[in-house]
Each structure stands twice: as C-alpha cells, then as structure tokens.
Write a structure and sequence with these properties.
The protein is mainly alpha-helical and 198 residues long. The chain is 75% helix and 6% strand. Strands 1-2-3 form a three-stranded antiparallel sheet, covered by helices on one side. Helix 2 runs antiparallel to helix 5, helix 5 packs antiparallel against helix 6 and helix 5 (94-105) runs parallel beside helix 7 (147-173).
C-alpha cells in the first residue's frame, strides 16, 4: 500500500512539474520580456568589451607567466625581451559572447536553467579564448612558421566552431529540446490560430 501511495505521489509531482514547464513556455509575457532584453543586448557590445578585455588580458598573461617573463600594461602583454601581444577587440571575441546570449534568449527555459546556461557557456568560451591567445602567443615567441596558418585557422574556422560547439554542449547539459527562434515563432502561430477559433 505504501509503495502504491508513493508511486501515485511521485506521478502527481511529475505531472505538476510538466504542467509548470508548459505554463512557463506558453506565457506571452515571458516571451516578450526575453525579446525586449535581447533588443537591449544589441547595444551592450561596448560593455561586453569593457568587462572582458581586462579579464582576457590578465587571463592570458597569467598563463604566459608560467613559462615566460611577462609584463602587462593596459591591453598590451610584453613577453621579454621583445615580443608584444596587443589584445584588440576581435581577440576578446565579444560578438561570440553576444551570439551565445542571443541563442540563449531565443529559447524558452526556466530562469534558473537560463542563468546556469549563460554562465557556463560564457565561462567555457572565455577559457577556450584565453587558451587560443596563449597558443598563438607561444607560437609568436618561438617564431614558429605555423603562426600565420594557426592564426587564420582560429580566426576563420575555429572561432565559429567554438560558438556552435559550446551551444550544442549547453543544449546537451541542460537538456534543451527547443530550437532558437523557431519554437517561439511556432508558439505565436499556435496562439494566433487559437485566437481566430474563438
């Protein structure tokens, strides 16, 4: 009897959870709020660079200090005696962070999961980006013939793969089943159809 009661209670909890998810997904208020935030984010790229540039400089400098004598001034990393690395905006990859935010906000999910999703994807991208600059720095110091090829490979191919890979990892980790934008558009079409039937 106790097992049956527990099973019924567990099933009831699962049904309530599922209903809660559906209610959250089908709320026009949350959908419009997400897209308003998204619209505001379009103007935040300077803020993203302002926050991430020093973090990227000091993160890269920290790794390089393990192997070299390094001096940091503003956005410049000097590896003694003569190698200078300047961290310019494209090195910081602010647009990649913005793209991850866009992908995140165009998918319906619970606020707690969204926060974890944004934080984890941003941290992973930051680590990968710092490692990228570190590898290029090591190649530059050692006057490697592969520097130009590696730099172009990172710039044209791997930077895009980083964002796509991080998003798919986020989808896997947080069990996101919805498709960015498409799920919202589908929901809006269904709501319009429901309104017409009434």
């Amino acid at each position: 009897m106790k097992k049956r009661v527990k099973t019924k209670q567990n099933k009831a909890k699962e049904i309530r959870k599922e209903r809660g998810k559906e209610e959250y997904k089908s709320t026009p208020l949350f959908l419009s709020l997400r897209y308003l935030i998204l619209l505001g984010l379009m103007f935040t790229l300077p803020i993203i660079y302002w926050i991430l540039t020093p973090l990227t400089v000091y993160g890269t400098g920290f790794l390089l200090k393990i192997f070299y004598n390094v001096y940091i001034f503003n956005d410049m990393i000097t590896i003694f005696p003569v190698t200078i690395i300047q961290i310019i905006p494209p090195c910081v990859a602010g647009s990649a962070y913005l793209l991850l935010l866009i992908l995140n906000l165009t998918v319906p999910m619970r606020p707690k999961i969204r926060i974890y999703s944004i934080l984890s994807s941003a941290i992973i991208l930051f680590i990968l980006n710092v490692l990228r600059i570190f590898i290029l720095g090591v190649l530059l110091v050692n006057h490697s013939q592969f520097f130009d090829v590696t730099h172009k490979l990172f710039w044209y191919v791997l930077s895009t793969l980083f964002v796509v890979g991080i998003w798919f990892l986020t989808v896997f980790l947080f069990k996101i089943k919805e498709i960015p934008v498409y799920t919202d558009v589908k929901y809006l079409i269904e709501e319009i159809k429901k309104g017409k039937r009434k």
